[in-house]
Amino acid sequence: MPLYSFGSNGHSQLSLGHTTDVSIPTLCKFHLPPPPSSPPSSIIPGANHTLLLFPTGEAYSCGLNHCGQCGFADHSHPLGAFHRLANPPPPEGITNPSPESTQWGFITAGWEFTILATKDGKRVFACGTGAKGELGLGSGMLTTVPQLRDTPTPAIPGTTIHQIPNFPPEGTYVISLASSIMHVIAVLNDGSCFGWGASRKHQLHHPKTVPIPVPKTTAIPRAISPFPTDPFPVAKAVCTQESTFLISSSGDRLAHLGLPTTKWKVYEQMPPSCLGYVDIQASWNGVYILKDTGKIVAWGRSDNGRFPPKGLTGVKMMAVGSEHVIAVLEEDGREKLVAWGWGEHGNCGDVEGDRAVVPLREVEIPGGEGKKAKIRCIGAGCATSWVWVDWE
Amino acid sequence: MSEEDSIYDQIEIEDMTFDPSLQLYHYPCPCGDRFEISIYDLQDGEDVAVCPSCSLMIKVIFEPEDLQENLEKVPAVMNGATVAVSA
Ligand SMILES: [Zn+2]
What separation in Å is there between the alpha carbon of B84 and the centre of ligand 1? Predict the structure, then answer.
């Protein structure tokens, strides 16, 4: 499969069958059965584990699995190559389940945990570990390894994946999932949102609606009341380490959950809207909007070359990692992969000299032998970069 | 590069996790590994936590009394700055 990875690989999170960092895009390995030949809809990196979600509802994972964050019950060793995860079982008591109820449709990953939802959005699952309640399985179950005797819900056989009970509320379904390394946001079809995980920095509360005392951690999904005035239906969320941003469907409205004074000014510099957005993603302390004009608007932490160069246009796709960005540019009908930011692990390519501050540069993808690269999907994580290429 | 330049971020000790068996505080590093500092180094007034896998470091924001509760969790024989802590 034409999936390439490069960057930090200490726990085989790049799916290369070894644990050495690489700075040149390298073909990923897949354990049998082989994945679909069409590209994934998303590439989802955690700290040292990675997931792939395909439009067919299949999910794959690789990398560190010591607390079950890859979803596999055998947590004795990391997964050196992508393995296919079990599909969600049919909902209890349903004889003719819809395909959408037994396929994966949404995945987000944090530091050492993964949250998954079925394609119909009606069931949400968790695996891995999170001392701040990131699994959403309650304060009695902060990890899926070791396996507890009494769990709120059973694991899917052969996995560490448990369903989050009583969520989403009857009659609603998930339309998007987002997470930082330590908190999770689920957006529902009625425009409401729920959150869990770290909440000490008001990640789950509007500054004007924060309960006193502020809950430091939140171990089950809690309804968020983000709007003291003038609410709007939320369609999407993105999370920096200590803030949450909620976005309306057209992008005309943006709301911030977090402290009124934020690190790196991620709230103070928030624009009034993000109309015309194609994609919105967050680094650990910055937010990046890809606009339909092919430009990227960014705010928050900007030092050490974290922001795109002024005047950058022609951006077709972007993927924002912890402290670096990769993007696909189209110039004269030719696509090219570029990277910038913190590239210490080779995640911005094979840079000579200072990798701490990498200005925007092209990353050559080996192979292709003169064929034209069609880049279908990209991803970026904790000093990791990913690209799915079809050669035409 | 001065030390100030190489400080990636400043982190409040309350946001860090204490590991009583290793007697250290840790916090995620953007490389996927984590910043670590021993509770005894903090007790001695050091405040820079380092990541074993990359060049980044963080400055820990804390008051000496913040350490007290966790010092009490450390097994008694290990407790005290005179005991050498193996790296
Ligand atoms: Zn590091």
Answer: 26
